[in-house]
Amino acid sequence: MIGGGAGGLITSSKLSAELSEEIKQEKVSITLFERAETQEFQPGYLEVAFRGTEPQKLRRPTEKLVSPGVKVVHAKCASLDLDNHQIVTEKNQEKYDFDYVVVSTGCSPDYSQTPGLREENMDFYTDADVSSRIYKTLQGIKSGRVVVGIAGLPYKCPPSPNEAAFMVDEYLRRHGIRKNVDITFVTPYTRIYTAEPINQVIAPLYSERDIESRTVFNTDSVDPVKKEISSLEGDTVKYDYLFLTPPHKPASFLKGTNYSDEDGWVKVDKLDMHITDHDFAFAIGDTNNIPTSKAGVEAHLEGIVVANNIAMNITGRGTKHLFTGRTQCSMETGFHDATFVVGTYDRPVEKIKPSKINYAEKKVMEHIYWGSLHGHYEWLFKYHFKQDYFSESPAKD
Ligand SMILES: Cc1cc2nc3c(=O)[nH]c(=O)nc-3n(C[C@H](O)[C@H](O)[C@H](O)COP(=O)(O)OP(=O)(O)OC[C@H]3O[C@@H](n4cnc5c(N)ncnc54)[C@H](O)[C@@H]3O)c2cc1C
């Protein structure tokens, strides 16, 4: 495994459970390469940014999240050579061979594409500490213009920029200063939310809450002197406070390989996540190029499918599973309401009304997240998703 975040941890946990006998007999070993000493619950960045949650509440030591039977190598992967089945780490250029490999190195903000953005923007995507700068700023706002939205594609968790708009609005209303502050949401899409059924749910809420929207606004640059964002379409938006979602990039070692596209996203089969032309290598979660959202729930479900299939190949037991593209991202709409973005490759996103029950479901995930990475809640995932996230393939491989 390369990457010990949402996808890598569940994949290694499931593999260690499925292959426990083989590990005991020393026929199989599982190694997880992870550069970070701690992991963060990324959906919590919104709570840090807009509700003042302490950053350390989102953190856990990586070691504590790894299941028995999984060896951790704390190192940054510098290269992955699929032709020679070899991983090289940055420090000391150590080399590791493998029979199977799963890449789950996620993605991160890329400020290099948008002049002026890094200097002016505060994001809730980089990490929990960076997110906390937004809350400090919010506390000082008395009046002015807040601009939130999407500064470029792709990015992870599609609903989060919209959640940010609702959460800024909630904060300002609760503090009695909403009337002094304009909120504008900018997006490159043609609507406030790209999927029409969800757009139908949230567009009326934008009007109700007086959040202005600027669609088909592809952010080109930010002018720190004029305090103005310009779009490729030739429009401008003035701001005093900028909380934009930057475009994202994959881990740098993936760019320029023969198994990634020109931006470094790993090319995989969307059903079993094997890397094109390499049936022993897989990429799951945010780093692959499958046509669905970059979200933790997808990384989790893809990881379970891939672990099942690797274990099946090794043991000859079970059946091959194919991912359906199932997504389920919560979208908070403020004041303890939330909707969900739910769909699969074949089933368009549904229209789900915001409710307190949906919000409660989102909150449950905060509590079970760390345990879910160990596979503790697979019974709940199975109950919730039924078999909607995989189908069984008739062929064993
Ligand atoms: C504000 C926000 C809100 C979100 N809300 C939701 C939500 O409500 N629902 C949802 O499903 N998802 C949500 N997400 C998205 C979710 O957190 C990610 O999609 C998920 O973490 C992706 O899992 P991953 O395993 O692909 O990547 P990650 O969890 O990011 O893990 C990648 C890991 O790889 C490691 N790594 C990277 N490069 C290297 C390297 N070269 N060598 C070694 N290790 C490396 C990193 O240190 C990291 O630990 C949200 C994200 C944000 C930022």
Description:
The chain is of the alpha/beta class and 397 residues long. It has two domains: 6-35 and 75-106 and 251-392, FAD/NAD(P)-binding domain (3-Layer(bba) Sandwich), CATH 3.50.50; 110-247, FAD/NAD(P)-binding domain (3-Layer(bba) Sandwich). Helices cover 30% and strands 25% of the residues. The chain has helices spanning 6-18, 20-24, 45-51, 62-65, 117-120, 128-140, 160-174, 196-209, 296-315, 356-373, 378-385; strands at residues 30-34, 38-40, 59-61, 70-74, 77-81, 86-89, 95-97, 101-103, 107-109, 144-150, 181-186, 211-214, 219-223, 228-231, 236-238, 241-245, 248-250, 274-275, 278-283, 321-323, 327-334, 337-343, 390-392. β5 and β6 (86-89) form a beta hairpin. α1 (6-18) packs parallel to α9 and α3 packs parallel to α6. The relative contact order is 0.15. The model has no long low-confidence stretch (mean pLDDT 96). Bound molecules: flavin-adenine dinucleotide. Flavin-adenine dinucleotide (FAD) binds next to α1, β1, α3, α9 and β21. Flavin-adenine dinucleotide (FAD) binds at residues 2-8, 33-36, 39, 42-43, 45-46, 76-77, 104-106, 124-125, 156-157, 160, 251, 253, 285-287, 294-297, 299, 329-330.
